[in-house]
Write a structure and sequence with these properties.
- By secondary structure, the chain is α/β, with parallel strands linked by helices.
- The protein has a single domain, classed as Aromatic amino acid hydroxylase (Phenylalanine Hydroxylase), CATH 1.10.800.10.
- It is 48% helix and 12% strand.
- Strands 6-5-8-7 form a four-stranded mixed β-sheet, with no helix packed on it.
- The radius of gyration is 17 Å and the shape is globular.
- Bound molecules: fe (ii) ion.
Length: 256
């Protein structure tokens, strides 16, 4: 289970996304944790995740063998959609986070959880950020949606009004799509949110009777609070990824 999104509401200056992606030094233990996480998730994902994720995984070349270096991953990803995974040391202020997304640069934590944290990690690690998020960035439609969400977030944050209710609304859209989104696919409900892809417990909950799965409706999502400290009891299902584009386009018009 992941406890929190990548960004915080802090307003301190941040320039993490401009760091060069120097090689990160992983130990055998780090690679072993990645391998265990990868090999535990894949059998369940084959039957529960969107095909877009499985295609993206192959496109960017992720495997259980080793934690990827970002440069190698980007060499396969960037020519396809313009997206890059860029290193960040941890939580980012929301303004910097969304501005980075608008540039098609996904802030990525490169550290990996410890063997004691296989099932629960408070902050994103590379398994959440790279395995959970980055494969979808190889899909042109999702890539466009995420960059447009970033541009909207950067625009809102440039107003520097923390009381603007649209900031909360955009955080909800991000949470219920990018992190915990569900999609109708192959005659059933499939997961595409990174918090579900990277966590067996969250995914199992999302597809169980404990979670109410509602058809995606933009205004319902913007009005739906979420709690990062517990399993989700309400999630939203898009009929296809075009709904994401339509949602972000509607917000662009509404907030212009
Ligand atoms: Fe995430």
């Amino acid at each position: 289970m992941l406890k929190a999104p990548e960004f915080s509401s802090a307003t301190a200056a941040d320039s993490a996304t401009t760091q060069p992606a120097a090689l990160f030094d992983y130990t055998g233990t780090h690679h072993a944790v990645w391998r265990v996480l990868f090999e535990r998730r894949m059998p369940a994902l084959e039957a529960t995740v969107t095909q877009v994720f499985l295609d993206g995984l192959a496109t960017i070349g992720l495997s259980s063998a080793a934690i990827p270096q970002l440069d190698a991953l980007n060499a396969r990803l960037t020519p396809r959609t313009g997206w890059r995974a860029v290193p960040t040391p941890g939580f980012m202020p929301a303004a910097a986070f969304f501005a980075s997304l608008a540039r098609r640069e996904f802030p990525t934590v490169r550290s990996v959880r410890t063997p004691q944290q296989l099932d629960y990690v408070e902050a994103p690690d590379i398994f959440h950020d790279v395995f959970g998020h980055v494969p979808l960035h190889a899909d042109p439609a999702f890539a466009s949606f995420l960059a447009r969400v970033g541009a909207l977030g950067a625009l809102l944050r440039s107003g520097a009004n923390d009381d603007d209710p649209r900031i909360t609304e955009l955080a909800r859209l991000f949470w219920f799509t990018v992190e915990f989104g569900l999609v109708h696919e192959a005659g059933g409900t499939r997961i595409y949110g990174s918090g579900l892809i990277s966590s067996h417990a969250d995914a199992a909950n999302a597809l169980s009777d404990a979670c109410e799965r509602r058809p995606f409706a933009l205004d319902a999502v913007l009005a739906q609070p979420f709690d990062v400290d517990r399993l989700q009891d309400v999630l939203f299902v898009v009929s296809d990824f075009r709904e994401l584009d339509e949602a972000v386009a509607a917000l662009e018009r509404r907030w212009a």
